[in-house]
Specification:
The complex is a heterotrimer of chains A (162), B (433) and C (218). By secondary structure, chain A is an alpha/beta fold. In chain A, 39% of the residues lie in helices and 9% in strands. In chain A, strands 1-2-3-4 form a four-stranded parallel β-sheet. In chain A, strand 2, helix 4 and strand 3 form a beta-alpha-beta unit. Chain B has 433 residues and is of the alpha+beta class. Helix content of chain B is 48%, strand content 13%. Chain B has 18 helices and ten strands. Chain B has a three-stranded antiparallel β-sheet. Chain B has a three-stranded antiparallel β-sheet with strand order 8-9-10. In chain B, helix 4 packs antiparallel against helix 5 and helix 5 runs antiparallel to helix 12. Chain C is an alpha/beta fold. Helix content of chain C is 20%, strand content 26%. Chain C has a five-stranded mixed β-sheet with strand order 1-2-7-6-3. In chain C, strand 8, helix 4 and strand 9 form a beta-alpha-beta unit. Classes of the chains: A alpha/beta (162), B alpha+beta (433), C alpha/beta (218). At the B-C interface, helix 2, helix 9, helix 14, strand 8 and strand 9 of B face strand 3, helix 3 and helix 4 of C.
């Protein structure tokens, strides 16, 4: 966002930042990156009982170019790691990453040759949601905390990324 | 209405075509096939499956499935854990029907140990697994419908499944990946309201399954997309090693619950739904009929639920502590703690050894198989006489079934490949392990 | 299936019952053993926990599998898996105090990779295991894909994880590990891997199963 990088930080921009952040947090569209068991719980979180659409996240975009949140749900194997990075790079700014489940956060119970021990080795993570798998309510708690974090962001946080 | 340049297939040449003379162009480029990559990140490949399609226009010539994007090394990791801990690992392979993985693994361990699981545990295993079969078929219906664009099926399927997950949560503590089946029986006995919960589910589920059937079975769009797609004859299915609903849809009434019964299945009366067409629609019909048959089995198992213990009585194998509800929640029974701390040194040592090292299993090799929602789920266990498995190998039906995708999709369109993969119902956790 | 009656919508008929087949009689373990030894002479076999295992040499493997498929009607290759028994001295610790079993040592001069083929007859309702051993430093077996197409992925998996070369396989490349991976992970001389979990103020001690391997890997 070229305009943002030209504007100075300061009190004058608070209302604009608040407005923009409000827009970003209440209509964050997740990209489908379900890998394993956590993907089923993520789908259940989008299901009718724990309804994720209440928080503006009904639409799971298939294309990363149209999404701004990537929920890495499940265990990331070494073979899949370059694909994850590529999808992350294809998302356009501003973007956030939630690592859902212990396998994505830290390798989980599988401390072995096959898994990347935490997706933060590959992509920068904004929110870690532990659990094996985390209940849909836990995922929603993580998402809401991320929304709160987004609302507190300043423009500089997002423009500094390359 | 003429071609401005002579059409050639050399790269860099421009072809100016007005439409009516397409045949002259295609003659020149008829050897060109298009290779398209689908996945591994793709909304409708059921997880991280990568398909490389060779296309002639929109017709599929060859499909190469590339797997391994979810390989977790579960089998090797289980060699470094005790036999009881293996249940927790194996359950995460086919994560939509986790109880079946646990079941086949525990059956293998029990066969190596040469012990008999108490009847109450067998009946509860049957009930929980048949509910799991229904929830797995509901996930299949929901995701299959979503891939076709029928999003109502998705929401209804997942909504119905939530009620089954409530039951699982009340009994095992977890909605998914419950390590509930342990070698020798169950982790703990069912709660007092188990029968009522099952009864209410048995009333609720037939209506929901009927709703999903009403949405799909006679739906013209659904029939157009499913009938005649992905035909697999019985001989081809057996050659490819495909079992389960695909084999039954091809006309072979092979069901391990009937032919090699386990865990008390011989006492229950149920049918094996079979179709002849062998296409995706037939598989849909078989799976829906299987859901109703599961309800029948649960009804019978619930009516004849025996009393007794849920864990084998042998002190060398049985998990030593007894759980009891105390003032601060569930924990070790205080009488039991008093016994091992004050009264019996052997019990304390036994408890300690069993919890830290685990029991030992005599050396040998077994292969056990159960009928999972996807087909024959087998477990080849090798023990070298210690407290850790020497080799755990799980034969997953999705892994074997992916080989048949190429054969079934030839000559169809790209969107039919989605239907073929959906009707196979692969779960990548089981494929890659 | 030689049964010619139409099957459409058929529910529950002709379903195999335990101990019986739908099309041909089910063979007991004794009968299976007799048929195998009748055809192949003195075949090494074992019955453990109600399962028959026939031990064959790599040269006989395809003949035995063809016999199972054609004469014993085992149309389905249920499973093809491998176990690595490495060479050298190994102490088998069997917890003397709780089991009463003695501790013993196992010593093998030649490490082997034992590959098991579980063949099942769907219409006659019996199952048996064919087991073949190949030396682990030059593991090679004939491919069963010509007899059972389902062996394709299974053999690729055994090649990927154990290093057994199947001659005659149409496409023997890695299936589960990345294409450029080095080593065969499920062999016993390959470490489990992973990261060391360290606690503050702790001294790092490698787990027992890797005390010999850390030097090799690093």
């Amino acid at each position: 966002m070229g305009l943002e990088s030209k504007l100075p930080n300061g009190i004058l921009l608070t209302n604009l930042e608040k407005f923009v952040n409000y827009g970003r947090s209440t209509s964050m569209w997740p990209a489908t990156f379900g890998l394993a068991c956590c993907a089923i719980e993520m789908m259940a979180a989008g299901g009718p009982r724990h309804d994720l659409a209440r928080f503006g996240m009904e639409v799971f975009r298939a294309s990363p170019r149209q999404a701004d949140l990537m929920i890495v749900a499940g265990r990331l194997s070494n073979k899949m790691a370059p694909v994850l990075r590529r999808i992350y790079d294809q998302m356009s700014d501003p973007k956030w990453v939630i690592s859902m489940g212990v396998c994505a956060t830290s390798g989980g119970m599988f401390n072995n040759y096959a898994l990347v021990q935490g997706v933060d080795h590959v992509v920068p993570v904004d929110m870690y949601v532990p659990g094996c798998p985390p209940r849909p309510e836990m995922l929603m708690d993580g998402i809401l905390k991320l929304h709160a974090k987004v609302r507190g962001e300043e423009f500089a946080d997002k423009t500094a990324r390359s | 209405m003429s071609v401005s340049h002579e059409p050639t297939a050399e790269p860099g040449n421009e072809l100016w075509v007005d439409g009516a003379d397409w045949e002259t162009v295609t003659d020149a480029i008829e050897d060109d096939t298009l290779t398209v990559n689908m996945g591994p990140q793709h909304p409708s490949t059921h997880g991280v499956l990568r398909l490389v399609l060779e296309l002639d226009g929109e017709t599929v010539l060859k499909v190469t499935p590339i797997v391994g994007y979810l390989h977790t090394g579960i089998e090797k990791n289980a060699e470094y854990r005790t036999w009881v801990q293996g249940s927790t690992f194996v359950t995460r392979m086919d994560y939509v029907a986790p109880l079946f993985n646990e079941w086949v693994y525990c059956m293998g361990v029990e066969r190596l140990l040469d012990i008999e699981v108490p009847e109450r545990a067998q009946a509860v295993r049957v009930i929980m697994s048949e509910f799991n079969r229904i929830s797995s078929h509901l996930v299949w219906l929901a995701t299959g419908g979503m891939e076709l664009g029928a999003t109502t099926v998705m929401t209804n399927g997942f909504g119905a499944r939530e009620h089954i997950l409530d039951l699982f949560e009340s009994q095992s503590g977890l909605r998914m990946n419950h390590a509930y089946f342990r070698p020798g029986g169950l982790a703990q006995d069912v709660t007092d309201d188990f029968v009522e919960r099952c009864e209410s589910l048995l009333e609720y589920l037939p209506k929901k399954i009927q709703e999903l059937e009403d949405l799909l079975t006679k739906n013209a769009i659904f029939q157009d997309r499913f009938i005649g797609i992905g035909v697999l004859t019985a001989e081809d299915a057996l050659g490819f090693g495909v079992t389960g609903p695909l084999l039954r849809a091809a006309g072979v009434p092979h069901d391990l619950r009937k032919s090699q019964p386990y865990s008390g299945y011989e006492q229950y009366e149920f049918d094996v739904p079979t179709e002849t067409a062998g296409d995706s629609y037939a598989r849909y019909l078989v799976r829906v009929a299987e859901m109703y048959e599961s309800l029948r089995i649960i009804r019978q198992a619930l009516d004849t639920l025996p009393g007794g213990d849920v864990m084998v009585a042998d002190k060398k194998i049985r998990w030593p502590s007894q759980q009891a509800l105390g003032p601060d929640g569930i924990g070790n029974d205080p009488d039991y703690i008093r016994h091992i701390m004050g009264e019996s040194m052997e019990s304390l040592i036994n408890h300690f050894k069993l919890v830290t090292q685990g029991f030992t299993v005599p050396a040998g090799q077994v292969y056990t198989a159960v009928e999972s929602p996807r087909g024959e789920l087998g477990c080849a266990l090798t023990s070298n006489g210690t407290n850790k498995p020497y080799r755990v190998h799980v034969r997953d039906p999705s892994f074997v079934g992916l080989q048949a995708v190429d054969h079934q999709s030839r000559g169809h369109g790209i969107s039919d490949v989605i239907v073929v993969v959906a009707s196979l119902d692969p779960i990548m956790g089981g494929v890659d392990r | 299936m030689s049964d010619n009656t139409p099957l459409s919508g058929r529910v529950g008929t002709d379903v195999p019952a335990p101990g019986h087949g739908t099309d041909g009689e089910s063979l007991t373990i004794e009968q299976l053993r007799e048929q195998l030894t009748g055809r192949f002479g003195d075949l090494d076999h074992d019955v453990h926990r109600g399962e028959l295992t026939a031990f064959v040499a790599p040269e006989q493997l395809l003949d035995v599998l063809a016999f199972c498929r054609d004469e014993l009607s085992c149309e389905l290759l249920s499973d093809l898996s491998a176990v690595h028994w490495p060479a050298g001295d190994h102490v088998i610790e069997r917890q003397v105090s709780t089991t009463g079993w003695p501790e013993y040592r196992v010593s093998r001069d030649q490490g082997v990779i034992e590959v098991s083929y579980i063949v099942r007859s769907v219409r006659r309702n019996h199952v048996l295991r064919v087991s073949v051993a190949t030396p682990d430093d030059a593991a090679s077996l004939p491919s069963a894909t010509s007899l059972y197409p389902t062996a394709n992925f299974h053999e690729r998996e055994v090649y990927d994880l154990f290093g057994v070369e199947f001659t005659g396989h149409p496409n023997l490349i890695r299936i589960l590990m990345p294409d450029d991976w080095l080593g065969h992970p499920q062999r016993k001389d390959y470490p489990l891997g992973g990261v060391d979990v360290e606690y503050v103020g702790d001294k790092f001690i490698p787990p027992p199963h890797e005390r010999n391997l850390r030097e090799v890997v690093e």
